[in-house]
Specification:
3-stranded antiparallel sheet, about 50% helix
């Protein structure tokens, strides 16, 4: 690209020189029939001059895309990063674009998916020496303010990934996982260990002008013996947790039954107390005068009622057809018989 721009620049210079030459040689002779004729060639001088100027200006224009940052290099000297947009530089200035979009580095045991066509997982050792294989995705972006330094160190986006992101991420992940047991890293504290690794990688990359968006531990593989041991521990732990849950459920049921029984007993006691108090009130209100008044009210307007003296022993009546017979042989015509209590 730079060679092409330089050729355009040189061609523009030549056109300007030609135009100047035409300007100073306004007339020239051209052969015609019968001899030579003066031709005012100088009037065409502005054309090559203008074309030459346009070519020189065009060879000095640099356009940086909206998702890039430009790194200008003039005769081996690296300049300040160029923001997205149109810039005018010297024709011999080369501008290299660094993408500011998020990039991904995938390190996995699947050779068909990762950065490299070979198994590329991150192998770590736990605190007790167990081996774990991690599939890791690193999502990052170039800090535009540090793009010139990155270009000076690695020269390209591929260089940033292979010479900075991958080595630093793998190293920090190994350091973090070495502080935890295999069981913690695989199950008990998996999220915590992953967060610690992400924090360490973010710190390391930020010092070199790279912004980490996310570090994802996609999969963790264990050695067969280690996997069997951890599986047995997890199964025992789950059995214990299930037993505790069942015990808590039984205790909750027992507590519920006790509360229901207590509430029911309280309700029965309250009901008995209320009934006793009602009876006491009723008994205290049944005076002889009240009973006598109730008796008079009951027989008022009913002439066919036989009364016995209040407070005397009651002699029962024997039914005999439409008559009632008392023991001494007398009969009484009656329809309704009411005995006082």
């Amino acid at each position: 690209m730079l060679k092409t721009l330089m050729a355009i620049f040189v061609f523009g210079i030549i056109l300007i020189v030609v135009g100047i030459g035409l300007f100073f040689n306004r007339n020239t002779q051209i052969p015609v029939k019968g001899g030579l004729q003066q031709f005012p060639i100088g009037k065409f001088a502005p054309i090559p001059i203008l074309i030459g100027i346009a070519l020189i200006v065009g060879s000095s224009v640099r356009i940086v895309a909206a998702t890039d940052v430009g790194i200008p290099v003039t005769l081996g000297k690296i300049g300040s990063p160029l923001d997205p947009g149109v810039h005018f530089t010297l024709p011999w200035t080369q501008v290299t674009a660094f993408s500011t979009r998020f990039q991904e580095s995938l390190m996995t045991k699947d050779a068909t998916q990762g950065d490299r066509a070979v198994p590329d997982q991150v192998t770590v050792l736990s605190s007790e020496g167990g081996r774990l294989d991690l599939d890791v995705t690193v999502r990052y972006a170039v800090d535009p303010a540090k793009a010139s330094d990155l270009y000076k160190k690695v020269g390209s986006m591929i260089g940033i990934r292979d010479r900075i992101v991958r080595p630093d991420a793998r190293s920090r992940i190994r350091d973090v996982y070495s502080r935890f047991t295999a069981e913690q890293a695989y199950s008990l504290k998996r999220e915590l260990v992953g967060a610690e690794a992400e924090k360490a990688v973010r710190t390391a990359l930020s010092l070199k002008g790279i912004s980490l968006d996310a570090l994802r531990i996609r999969d963790i593989s264990l050695e067969p013996a280690l996997a069997k041991e951890i599986g047995a521990k997890l199964e025992a732990k789950q059995a214990t947790e299930r037993a505790l849950i069942e015990q808590q459920r039984d205790k909750t049921k027992a507590d519920t039954r006790l509360k229901v029984a207590t509430i029911d007993a309280s309700a029965r006691v309250a009901s008995a107390k209320g009934e006793a108090e009602a009876n006491n009130i009723l008994n205290s209100s049944l005076t002889p005068e009240l009973l006598k008044a109730r008796e008079i009210e009951a027989i008022k307007g009913n002439p066919n009622t036989v009364l016995y003296p209040y407070g005397q022993p009651i002699t029962p009546l024997l039914s005999a057809g439409s008559r009632s017979v008392v023991p001494n042989g007398a009969t009484v015509e009656t329809t309704t018989t009411v005995a006082a209590p």
